[in-house]
Write a structure and sequence with these properties.
4 helices, binds zinc ion, mainly alpha, 5% strand, Helix Hairpins
Amino acid sequence: MNEETEKREKERVQLRNLVELQKKDNEINDLEKNLEIIPGQIASAQKELEGKKGKLNALQEEIDSLKKQRSQLEQDAKAEADHMAKTKSKLPTVKTNKEYTAILHETDAIQTKITEIEDKELEVMELLDSKDQERPGLEAEFKGEEDQFNQYKQKKEAEQARVQKELEEAKAQRAALVKEIDPKFITRYDKIRKLRENVAVVSIKGDTCQGCHQNMQPQVALEVRAGERLHQCQSCDRFLCYIPEPEPQTESAVPK
Ligand SMILES: [Zn+2]
């Protein structure tokens, strides 16, 4: 193997490893993004569930308040009944017409109050009935939603554990890959990736860098395409590789 061939072979391997490193870093990025959003997804589903629990709690509060009203009305009715009995008990001792008329007025007034209380009681009891009927449905609905949430949470936690494991594996694979690459390229790669939106290795298309869309010399493009020389874009510094574009899919191949 002559010196030139050996140099090219080395560069070819370095380039291939750099391409793999970029792929691995993309994978790590995606996994980290996935991992980041999971706790928020669980929290927002939980918040939604708590909102639905609020609806159930509000109904229960309404029922409790109606029960309180009903018991107050029962007490009021009893007090008025006592009042009526006491007033009527005065009748045998009445001496004048005027006194008699006054007592009749009083019993009329009490009767009006009693009727009002009874009407109100009826109203409260009807409302209580309808609220009581609403409750089992709402409870069942909530229970269903709670079960659904618990399932979702379990699924998301399993996903979280799986992604975490995949991330650790990917990081280990990255570390192994880094060992295969000349440290000076790694330093350059990391620096470019930091400066260029996480992309340090980019494919060319024709004579164009797909990272910054600047053209390069045809000779450079040719060498990149052959995959035997390690070139960096003159404009954006990214390492250049050649990944053929996938065959464009025909209309019929894309189901609608
Ligand atoms: Zn470029």
